[in-house]
């Protein structure tokens, strides 16, 4: 049988994603792709994949999978609870933000994700799934992408490799640069379609991430904004981060699955450096906004990219020898001191038993 | 010639916007063509995508490769050049449409609302010379201008949860063909038997901004024959 992950339970909203379907917007084809691109890149880096390899994006919680390959190296990036059940029935907790080598018959249950909407499951070598229009991203609304454009379902999800490569396992040793503080906005492209105090309201009032948010857009619950002369404009282009305001005055911050064009006035745009953080925001989270210039936004993005690169360059290799205490390792910052990067192939990892 | 203005979408995109200028469509098409050609020559480093819309050309860029200042200056220089050159020739598509009542659930109501006979509605709809101004809403969904003003009606007050793929529709000043099944509030007056979008094609959408479109009436037998084979249409090279 060809190597696969047997999806025993798909999880609430699991879909295949990569860095998006770029270059086809002029044909009305949405980009889709990871809500948190930093997380997707980390998951891939942990298993030695190219940064844009297709991963499973897990939302709120994750799937229950069984390994149907001789072995597979996996990593989950993001604060998810991972439980490994081995073929002999032994159960262990696995840490996220590092790689693990699983063997045939192992079951991995990915439980609730706490502190982020999404997390990413990468497999070394990637999934053996044909891209659609050059991408493994899934747009659920348009039904476009691999797996028939649908969310993950039960059944075999084929893998490119039947065996994990020689180790070492990799681990993230410093926090990713998601940033904190206010979400930064550049006013426009239609800020002038709103009353003068509307932009001030958006920049001075806290908003809450609404429950009716999805991959297409985040509803911002808070003070309503007012148009000078109606919400409708001649349809024009949208980007992830665009804040459009329909006639009811409730702003919607558009995310990965946004349509390419839209006919509602857009008061401002969240900067690209803050999109990964927005992609992780959970309904109920409180957001505060602040205006910046385009030059400041570009500088923030460059600084973030440098910091992401530093994180990915500094992934530490770990050689398994019995139990590891991640918290202690973090505290002692020993990780980077104990590796050479060219260790012998490692045995299946172990961790704390439940 | 009306001036254009630049509007911002954060640090990854901006619009060159022609507002209500009567020649907005041709200027957007010309700038789009020129910018694509420049990018293919290796210029405009950092350009990611170009999206023509009704009043503007959206330019998406990678802020890690270029800066807004740099790429905006390059696009505005191109704009100044293209404003002085004649627009490129457009492709012309002849799309078969069956206006039979089985495919035209709104034809009778359209006729009643416009004071025209159903045949007159069909005649006016199929006599017009349409221009694709933009694609959006759905993959391959093309917004066509050029609708006969006698057929101008607001969108339906009760949108349909499912409009079948191929439905030929009008609303306000626009005409369109739904490339896939979708919810929709436009008036349906016929159906095209040929696909307009297929992920297996390269490019996947039949129509592109700047193309011209004519609708050619066909009868249900011809519709059935075309629907059975679904040939990929080829455009005429018009002027």
From TrEMBL, chain A:
- In this protein, which residues make up the domain named Carboxyltransferase? 26-307
Which keywords does UniProt give here?
ATP-binding, Hydrolase, Nucleotide-binding
Q: Has UniProt tagged this entry with the keyword Metal-binding?
A: no
- Tell me the SMART domains matching this sequence: AHS2 (SM00797)
Q: Which GO terms describe its molecular function?
A: ATP binding; hydrolase activity
Q: Does the keyword ATP-binding apply?
A: yes
Q: What is this protein called?
A: Allophanate hydrolase subunit 2
Organism listed in the record: Magnetospirillum fulvum MGU-K5
Automatic annotation (TrEMBL), chain B:
GO MF annotation terms: ATP binding; hydrolase activity
**What positions does the domain Carboxyltransferase occupy?**
4-207
- Which Pfam families does the UniProt record give? CT_C_D
Q: Does the keyword Hydrolase apply?
A: yes
Keyword entries, A-Z? ATP-binding, Hydrolase, Nucleotide-binding
InterPro entries named in the record: CT_C_D (IPR003833), Cyclophilin-like_dom_sf (IPR029000), PxpB (IPR010016)
Q: Which PANTHER family match?
A: 5-OXOPROLINASE SUBUNIT B
State the name under which the record lists this protein: Allophanate hydrolase subunit 1
């Amino acid at each position: 049988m060809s190597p696969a992950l047997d999806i025993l339970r798909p999880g609430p909203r699991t879909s295949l994603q990569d860095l998006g379907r770029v270059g086809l917007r002029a044909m009305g084809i949405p980009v889709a792709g990871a809500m948190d691109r930093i997380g997707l890149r980390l998951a891939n880096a942990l298993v030695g994949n190219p940064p844009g390899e297709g991963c499973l994006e897990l939302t709120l919680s994750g799937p229950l999978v069984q390994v149907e390959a001789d072995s597979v190296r996996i990593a989950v990036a993001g604060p998810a609870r991972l439980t490994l059940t081995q073929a002999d029935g032994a159960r262990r907790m696995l840490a996220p933000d590092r790689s693990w080598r699983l063997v045939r018959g192992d079951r991995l249950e990915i439980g609730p994700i706490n502190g982020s909407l999404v997390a990413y499951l990468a497999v070394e070598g990637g999934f053996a799934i044909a891209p659609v229009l050059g991408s493994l991203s899934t747009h659920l609304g348009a039904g476009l992408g691999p797996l028939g454009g649908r969310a993950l379902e039960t059944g075999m999800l084929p893998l490119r490799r039947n065996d994990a490569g020689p180790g070492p396992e990799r681990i993230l040793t410093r926090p990713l640069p998601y940033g904190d503080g206010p979400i930064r906005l550049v006013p426009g492209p239609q800020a002038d379609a709103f009353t003068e105090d509307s932009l001030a309201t958006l920049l001075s009032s806290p908003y809450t991430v609404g429950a009716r948010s999805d991959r297409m857009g985040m509803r911002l619950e808070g003070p309503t904004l007012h148009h000078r002369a109606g919400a409708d404009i001649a349809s024009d282009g949208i980007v992830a981060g665009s804040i459009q305001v329909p006639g009811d005055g409730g702003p919607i911050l558009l995310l990965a699955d946004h349509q390419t064009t839209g006919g509602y006035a857009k008061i401002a745009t969240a900067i690209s450096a803050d999109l990964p953080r927005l992609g992780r925001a959970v309904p109920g989270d409180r957001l505060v906004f602040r205006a910046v210039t385009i030059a400041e936004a570009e500088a923030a993005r460059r600084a973030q990219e440098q910091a992401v690169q530093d994180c990915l360059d500094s992934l530490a290799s770990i050689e398994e020898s019995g139990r590891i205490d991640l918290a202690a390792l973090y505290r002692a910052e020993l990780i980077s001191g104990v590796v050479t990067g060219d260790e012998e192939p490692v045995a299946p990892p172990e961790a704390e038993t439940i | 010639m009306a001036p254009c203005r630049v509007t911002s979408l954060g640090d990854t995109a901006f619009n060159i916007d022609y507002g209500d200028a009567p020649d907005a469509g041709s200027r957007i098409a010309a700038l789009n063509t020129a910018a694509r050609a420049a990018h293919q020559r290796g210029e405009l480093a950092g350009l990611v995508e170009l999206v023509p819309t009704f009043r503007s050309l959206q330019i998406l860029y990678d802020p890690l490769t270029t800066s807004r200042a740099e790429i905006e200056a390059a696009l505005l220089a191109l704009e100044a050049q293209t404003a002085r050159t004649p627009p490129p020739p457009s492709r012309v598509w002849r799309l078969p449409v069956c206006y039979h009542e089985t495919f035209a659930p709104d034809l009778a109501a359209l006729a009643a609302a416009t004071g025209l006979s159903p045949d007159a509605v069909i005649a006016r709809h199929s006599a017009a010379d349409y221009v694709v101004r933009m694609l959006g809403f759905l993959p391959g969904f093309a917004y066509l201008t050029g609708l006969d003003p006698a057929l101008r009606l607001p969108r339906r007050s009760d949108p349909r949860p499912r409009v079948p793929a191929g439905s030929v529709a009008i609303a306000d000043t626009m005409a369109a063909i739904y490339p896939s099944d979708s919810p929709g509030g436009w008036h349906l007056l016929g159906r095209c038997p040929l696909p307009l979008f297929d992920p297996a094609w390269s490019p996947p959408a039949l129509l592109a901004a700047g193309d011209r479109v004519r609708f050619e009436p066909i009868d249900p037998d011809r519709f059935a024959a075309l629907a059975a084979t679904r040939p990929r249409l080829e455009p005429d090279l018009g002027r």
